[in-house]
Amino acid sequence: MKRLALLLPLLVLAAGAVWLAARGGRAGDPVERLVADMVPIPGQDFRMGKYEVTQAQWEAVMGENPSKFKGADHPVECVSWDDCQAFLEKLNAHPAARATGLVFRLPTEEEWETACRAGSTNDFCRLADGTEITEATLGRVAWFDENLSTRPRWLARSLAFAERLADRVREVDWSETVSHKPVGRKEPNAWGLHDLHGNVWEWTETADGENRVARGGGWHFSARRCVSSGRFRDSPSDRNDNLGFRLCATQRPAAEETHAESAEAAEP
Questions:
Q1: Is the Cβ–Cβ distance between 183 and 107 less than 8 Å?
Q2: Which of 243, 236, 214, 196 is nearest to 76 (CA)?
């Protein structure tokens, strides 16, 4: 009995880790998980992050969490393109990132769209079984304005209208916080990538005039704004609560790898 009492906390912790993994949780060191979750894109020379960068991962690198809607496993948001560059500089200097032999950066918008489509030529991505996602089935892979509320849209709108007209409905708490969701809760595309449609818009490296391009749609946008080809431009200094990013990575050039190894050997 005493032995069981000693083992029980360990069993609870193990069960928690399994539950986290099953729910798309980020058990383990945030930075190690971040650099490990890079998926090779078929026929291309780059890898793409399996998930959007989470708030826990951002905080592990930067020491703070700027997001409006907090949640360790939620995508980081309220980060500008400039903020992402500062994050990438620190990440690429981190021992866990250096050990991968990869250079981490933002994807170009062409790389982003290739990874999102996963072979599809239609508006949305393709799944591993060959299914082409449509606007009607977008909820299988995306969080967007039509599936974030726990109530049907007609009901949510009716309740909001009634609340403005009748004092008696104020005795009921109709409030509901709606925002992005933890990464990895929806089905992945055919190449194993989650949340490319919806949840948060994702910064890319691509410039459009003085602005930078973001792709993918966000949690309070319509299905039509979440298509694979959807894009918008924003100032590189802008921050808002539906704008985050995911990593792209390529192999570190051999010359840089040798230089890095020499620098490490010279350290006392």
A1: no
A2: 243
Q: Give me the CATH topology for the region 29-143+180-266.
A: paralog of FGE (formylglycine-generating enzyme) (3.90.1580)
Residues of the chain with CATH 3.90.1580.10: 29-143+180-266
Per-residue pLDDT of the chain (268 residues; tens, 9 = 90+): 455 444 444 443 444 443 344 334 445 799 999 999 999 999 999 999 999 999 999 999 999 999 999 999 999 999 999 999 999 999 999 999 999 999 999 999 999 999 999 999 999 999 999 999 999 999 999 999 988 755 455 554 454 455 445 444 333 333 346 789 999 999 999 999 999 999 999 999 999 999 999 999 999 899 999 999 999 999 999 999 999 999 999 998 876 655 555 445 555 5
The answer to whether 151 and 174 are in contact (CB under 8 A) is no
